[in-house]
Design brief:
- The chain is an alpha/beta fold and 196 residues long.
- The protein is 30% helix and 22% strand.
- It is built from seven helices and eight strands, in the order βββαββαβαααβααβ.
- The strands form two sheets. The protein has a four-stranded antiparallel sheet, with helices on one face. Strands 3-8-7-6 form a four-stranded parallel sheet.
- Strand 1 and strand 2 form a beta hairpin.
- Helix 4 runs antiparallel to helix 5.
- The protein is globular.
């Protein structure tokens, strides 16, 4: 279970989160819904440890998030932010392999390569393996990043859950991608959290 207790966060005197407590059930889809400016992205960043709340705590299972190393956290949860642009001319395969970085040091293993191939095939970007990411259409970039975060948590965790956290990932014209996520949620032992 992913939960947060009494999160408070503000910038320049403006409260973006004010004593927020939430918990999300495992094995399904959890939505954070609200109008623009309501603090959805700020809450997601706090859950992911991308910002440090002024008060409160986030827990992955029974473990306080601040007690997990960056590497340990990255092995159990993947995050897709709103910004999917990259400054460097990487290939699609290189972008997807970025999702496996927390799982190896130096050279990816066969297991890492298999996860990337499976995720790329699943999201229909396998045929674009060698393409320069910066030459892709918006939808192709979106699918490439779905493959990246899926590859990051492709295999069931040895203990606890995996968490896939997506910050407004879908545009209306690419809603078909959302339906393709369900088999990923149900994959293997189903020990995956999915957040929008």
């Amino acid at each position: 279970m992913l939960r947060a207790t009494h999160l408070t966060y503000g910038i320049r005197g403006k409260k973006l989160l004010d004593d927020v407590s939430v918990s999300f059930s495992p094995g399904g889809l959890n939505l954070i819904i609200g109008p623009n400016g309501a603090g959805k992205t700020t809450l997601i960043k706090a859950l992911c440890q991308q910002i440090k709340p002024e008060s409160g705590a986030v827990y992955y299972g029974d473990t306080k998030a601040t007690q997990l190393s960056v590497a340990a956290l990255a092995r159990m949860r993947a995050v897709l932010s709103q910004n999917i642009e990259l400054a460097f001319p990487l290939s699609v395969a290189e972008v997807v392999m970025m999702g496996r970085y927390p799982h190896f040091a130096g050279t990816p293993s066969t297991k890492d390569e298999s996860a990337c191939e499976a995720a790329m095939r699943f999201f229909d970007v396998w045929e674009m393996t060698d393409r320069n990411y910066n030459t892709l259409s918006g939808g192709e970039k979106q699918r490439t990043h779905f493959a990246r975060v899926a590859a990051q948590i492709w295999y069931p965790a040895s203990t606890g859950f995996r968490y896939l956290i997506l910050d407004e990932p879908l545009t209306a014209e690419h809603i078909r991608t959302a339906y393709r996520l369900e088999p990923v949620i149900r994959k293997e032992e189903g020990n995956l959290h999915l957040f929008f």
